[in-house]
C-alpha cells in the first residue's frame, strides 16, 4: 500500500461525523505513526480537511506526544528507557555503544533512513532492564551482547518480527501474592462472578459492598472508590462512562503491565461491574503507548468476553445490561496519567489538565459523568463484588483496607511484583526483595518521596507512606544526586506547559540541580531551589506540578550532608559557566588551545 | 428567600451569586485580585496562576475557584504577594521582555502587575529564548518574544471570531503560540485587525501596526494610576472603552 492508501484506510476505519472523528484524532495519528514511522504533511492536510479542523491544531497534538513525529524516524525506531533504574543497570553505556556501532547521534535518523536511536521516559520494565522499545515493542535485559546482536540484525535489515523471540520475553516476576494475585481468588473472577453477583442482587447493594470494603483508588490519590462511583451514579445525564487509567507512567511502576498481561479479565470485569452500577454503556481503557505490545492480547481478551456474553448487549442475558470497552492508545505523555488530562487525550486532544471543579464524576469524557480508576482498583473491585467486603477488609489497616501491589526495582536481589497487605513496613519489603546496604528508598516514583533507610519502620498505607506502587531502592554506593537530576529532567520533559510554576519553575529547578551536580552551586542556590520548589508545590495547576519539586526538596531537606559536600564554598557563583559559553566560538574557529579557554572551570 | 451570600476577601464582605468564581465576585465588587490570563469575557483558564489566593489554608486560583458562602479569602498576605511576584519573575525570564523598547510599555498588564506586586528585578536566570517577530500582516504585528501563553487570543479567535487563527503547539517549556495558516504567518491567515483576538493581548505580543507612541510615556494607562484602580488593558480597547470599569 502507498502512504496515501494507508492513510485513507486508517481514516475510513471508524467515525462518520467530523465530531466523532475528532475524538479519534490521536488514535489515527498513533496508527499512521506506527505504519509509516512518521506523520507526513499530506496526512495532516487530509485529516484537517476530513475533521474540519485547523492544521495548526493537529500540529499541536502531534507536538504534544513524544511518540509522534513529523519527520521519518527510520525503519527501526529505537527508544532506550531513560529511567534512573535503567541508568543504574548501565543503560547510558549501552546507549553510547548502540549509537557508536550504528553510527548515529541520539534522536537523529541515520542518513540512509535505516534507524533512529533515542531515549524515552521509563518504559515500565525496571525489574528486567535496561529496556528499550523497537518500533513499539519492548526488548528487556539489554546487555553488551544483546546490543551487538541488535546492531547486526539492523544492519542486515532483518524485520523486527524475525528477531530472536527471547529478546521480547517480558516476565511477570510476581514474587509475593496476597488477596488479589493468589491463585484461588484469580480463578474466581474470569467467569463473570462479579457480574453474576451484581445481577443476583442490585446495583445499590453492590455499591454498598464496594463502599463497605473501604477500597480506595490505587493510582496514588486514594479517593474512596465507592464514593466516586456513587457521585457518578447520582450525576444525571443521558450517558455515563467508565475509564480505566492504564497510563502507568510513574517511573519505577510496572504493576499495571503485569495486571494487564495476566489479569486483564479481572480488570475488564471490574470496569463492567462499575458500568452496571453507574449505568454506563461505554468504557475506555487508556493504554500508555509504551505498552502498545499489550494491545492485541488485550483486544483478544475483550473479544473472548464478548463471545462469553460478559460484554456487549444484554450481558449475562440481562436485558438492558449493555456495555462494551474500547482501547485507546497514549503516545508518550506522562501528564496523561492525570485523570483530566487523560480525558482530554481520550477526546483526541493535547493532554492538558482541566480545571477542577468540576470533577470527572460530573463532567468527564465528552462532558458526561465519568469514573476514572486505576487498573488495580477495577481489579480489586471485581474481586470484592465476587468475594465480599469482609474478605477484603480482613487485610490491611482500618484506613487502608486490603492489599497493594508494589513494583520493586533498583538495588535489590529480587526485583519484581510484590503484593502486600497495607500496613507492611518498608523494612519488611526491603528484606523480602533482598535489598542490603540500602541508603534510601524512593517511594511512589519521581513524584513521590525519598526516604532515608532510617525511616524504614514506616508503613505503606494511605495514612503513612502512600504509593501507587513504585518502590526504587538505592544502596550506599549510589549518588542520590544522579536520581534527583534524572527526575528533574523527567519533569521538564513531561510538564505539559500549561501553568507558569511547573513550566518555568521546573526548568529553573533543573538548571539549579545541574549546577549542584557540577559542583558550582552555593548556599544561595540551595535557598533558590527551596523557594522555587515551594512555589511549584503551592501554586501549580495540577498534581504533576505540585509534586515535581519533591525529589529536589527531599534531597535538600533529608540529605543535607550530601548537598553540603557538593557545594562550592564561595559566596556567589554565576549561573552560567563562562568557559562553556565560549564553546560555540571554539567550534567556529576550530581552536581548543589554552588561549581559547578562560576561567577556572576548564 | 433571596438571602445575599457573601465571602470575605481580606476582611471585606463580598457578595456573590450562584455560579460565580471568587474572581467574578471580586471584579463586580471592585476588589482587585491581580491576574493575567483572566478576562471576564472568556471562560476562566487558570494557567498564569497570578490570581492565586489563600482559601481556608489552601491555595487556589481565584479565577477558577467557585465562590462559597463564608470563605475566608486572603489576597494580600506577604506570602501570597511574594508568590505572585515570583510567578511574574518567571514569566519575565521565560520570554524576552525589554520594557524600555516596547510599544506596550505603560499599558502592559504584565508590567503593571509586576509594579503592583513590588517586583524590582526579574531575579531568576534569563532563558533568552530565540523567538521570532511576525510582521507579515498589513495591520497587525506579532512579537512572540513577549507572549506569556495566556491563550486569550486563542480563546478570542476560537470563541468570538470563530476563526481559530491561533493555537498552541509544543509541550512544557517548548510550548509556543502558533498561527494557523499554510505558511504559519499571520499575513497568510484569516486574521483581521478588527478581530476580537486583536484586542485581548495583555502584553505587547499582538500590536497594531502604523501607530507608534501615540500616547507619550507618562500618559499611558498605568502611568498615573496602578492596575488595581485602572483594571485590565483589554477593557480600554476600541468598542470596549471603560466597560466594567466605572
Molecular structure report:
- The complex is a heterodimer of chains A (602) and B (246).
- Chain A is of the alpha/beta class.
- Chain A has 5 domains: 3-64, no CATH class; 76-168, Glutaredoxin (3-Layer(aba) Sandwich), CATH 3.40.30.10; 174-393, NADH-ubiquinone oxidoreductase 51kDa subunit (Rossmann fold, 3-Layer(aba) Sandwich); 403-478, Ubiquitin-like (UB roll), CATH 3.10.20.600; 481-566, Up-down Bundle (de novo design (two linked rop proteins)).
- In chain A, the strands form 3 sheets. In chain A, strands 5-11-10-14-12-13 form a 6-stranded mixed sheet. A 4-stranded mixed sheet of chain A has the order 2-1-3-4, covered by helices on one side.
- Chain B folds into 2 domains: 5-76, Ubiquitin-like (UB roll) (Roll); 82-211, 2-Layer Sandwich (Alpha-Beta Plaits), CATH 3.30.70.20.
- By secondary structure, chain B is α+β, with helices and mostly antiparallel strands.
- Mean pLDDT of chain B is 93; it is low at 242-246.
As for the number of domains of chain B, it is 2
Using the 3D structure, state the CATH architecture of the largest domain in chain B: 2-Layer Sandwich
The CATH homologous superfamily of the largest domain in chain A is called: NADH-ubiquinone oxidoreductase 51kDa subunit
- The mean pLDDT of chain B is 93
| Count, helices of chain B | 6
Secondary structure topology:
The complex is a heterodimer of chains A (602) and B (246).
Chain A: H1 3-12, H2 18-23, H3 25-36, H4 41-51, H5 55-64, E1 76-81, H6 84-88, H7 91-102, E2 115-120, E3 132-134, E4 137-139, H8 144-156, E5 174-176, H9 183-187, H10 193-200, H11 203-213, H12 225-234, E6 241-246, H13 255-262, H14 264-278, E7 282-287, H15 295-307, E8 324-329, H16 339-346, E9 370-374, H17 375-387, H18 389-393, E10 403-410, E11 416-421, H19 426-432, E12 438-443, E13 449-452, E14 470-475, H20 480-494, H21 500-517, H22 523-539, H23 543-547, H24 550-558, H25 560-566, H26 578-581, H27 583-589
Parallel strand pairs in A: 1-2, 5-11, 6-7, 6-9, 7-8, 10-14
Antiparallel strand pairs in A: 1-3, 3-4, 10-11, 12-13, 12-14
Helix pairs in contact in A: 1-3, 7-8, 10-17, 11-12, 14-17, 20-21, 21-22, 22-24
Chain B: E1 5-9, E2 12-16, H1 22-29, E3 52-55, E4 58-61, E5 72-74, H2 78-94, H3 109-116, E6 133-134, E7 140-143, H4 152-160, E8 166-169, E9 176-179, E10 206-208, H5 221-224, H6 227-230
Parallel strand pairs in B: 1-5
Antiparallel strand pairs in B: 1-2, 3-4, 3-5, 6-7, 7-10, 8-9
